[in-house]
Design goal:
With 314 residues, the chain is mainly alpha-helical. The protein contains 16 helices and no strands. The N and C termini lie far apart (80 Å).
Length: 314
């Protein structure tokens, strides 16, 4: 009878812990470091302003805006670009698209992806094609912006345009995305001949921790999952708290104080199952930090962020 109770208790623990299973999924936070010198070095794809254009009100605002933009003073740049847009003659479609592109680029460099899409979808750039001087750059900007907004339909359309018009760029975008999204399976299969990528993936997989192992350890002995991750303080806290509540629950039930025992046991269940879930979450966080430290230098040094693919500037 006692053995049956033990088996039943063990089964309930495993069943309960399975409800708190954490998916092994990386969501690394990877940032790029873009310098003013890089932006200033990018060439302008559009025709230079004529003397007549420079003397007009919109032209003066446009010149000021470009100066702000090159200094990465993007808020002021956008303000002046918008003033130039308002002052520009309605039939000057060429300069209108140039101004619109500069506004989109300014929002993009400021990582204002919502504003990129909101402005783009109201602008004449919606109708741009390969004849537009900065069409490839525009597609790169739109790809990353839609990706940040998780608009899968628009992402698919942008990739199709890149594939049709700039297949080499599509491949670079694909690699960049796989690295940023930590798609290790894709990196292993599609880039098996790329020694640098394979070394990165191999190194990461050697150092990463198993989410399942962390949770399983915490299932049997609370705190050991955290210890597996190197979190000694969290491990000690989890072990002591669970031990204290288990002992208190036992004492209450043993002395016939059923209500107090039930309340204490409910608290213990929260600590216990919460610890299992927490160990899994911490394993994911641990793996994300390991991945970030390995991939961020590669993306920056090899200029594999989409922003570095842009050829034209202000």
């Amino acid at each position: 009878m006692k053995m049956t109770k033990k088996i039943l208790l063990f089964s309930l623990l495993l069943l309960g812990s399975s409800c708190y299973r954490v998916e092994e999924k990386l969501e690394p936070k990877i940032s790029y470091n873009i310098k003013q010198e890089h932006i200033s070095s990018l060439k302008n794809p559009f025709k230079s302003l004529s003397l007549e254009e420079r003397s007009q009100d919109w032209g003066k605002e446009f010149i000021i805006a470009k100066k702000f933009a090159k200094d990465l003073d993007l808020y002021r740049a956008i303000t002046n670009f918008r003033r130039a847009e308002i002052l520009l003659d309605e039939d000057n479609c060429y300069r209108l698209q140039e101004i619109e592109y500069n506004i989109v680029l300014s929002y993009y460099l400021g990582q204002k992806y919502d504003e990129v899409i909101e402005y783009f979808e109201k602008s004449s750039l919606c109708y741009a094609d390969k004849s537009f001087e900065a069409f490839e750059d525009l597609l790169i900007i739109l790809y990353e912006s839609y990706k940040e907004l998780e608009d899968t339909d628009k992402i698919k359309k942008i990739l199709e345009l890149l594939s049709d018009n700039y297949p080499d760029m599509e491949k670079k975008i694909e690699l960049s995305t796989a690295l940023i999204d930590a798609d290790t399976e894709s990196l292993k299969k599609k880039y098996s001949n790329n020694l640098k990528i394979q070394e990165l993936v191999t190194s990461y997989e050697k150092e990463k921790k198993s989410v399942k192992t962390a949770q399983l350890l915490n299932t049997f002995i609370p705190g050991t999952g955290y210890l597996y991750l190197g979190q000694k303080k969290s491990a000690a806290t989890a072990f002591l708290l669970n031990g204290l509540f288990i002992y208190a629950s036992y004492e209450f039930f043993h002395r016939g104080w059923t209500a107090a025992g039930a309340i204490t046991a409910s608290f213990e269940a929260g600590w216990y199952f919460g610890g299992i879930y927490g160990a899994g979450e911490e394993a994911n966080f641990y793996n994300e930090r390991v991945y970030e430290t390995k991939v961020t230098p590669l993306l920056n040094n090899d200029r594999l962020f989409p922003v570095f693919f842009i050829k034209y500037g202000f």
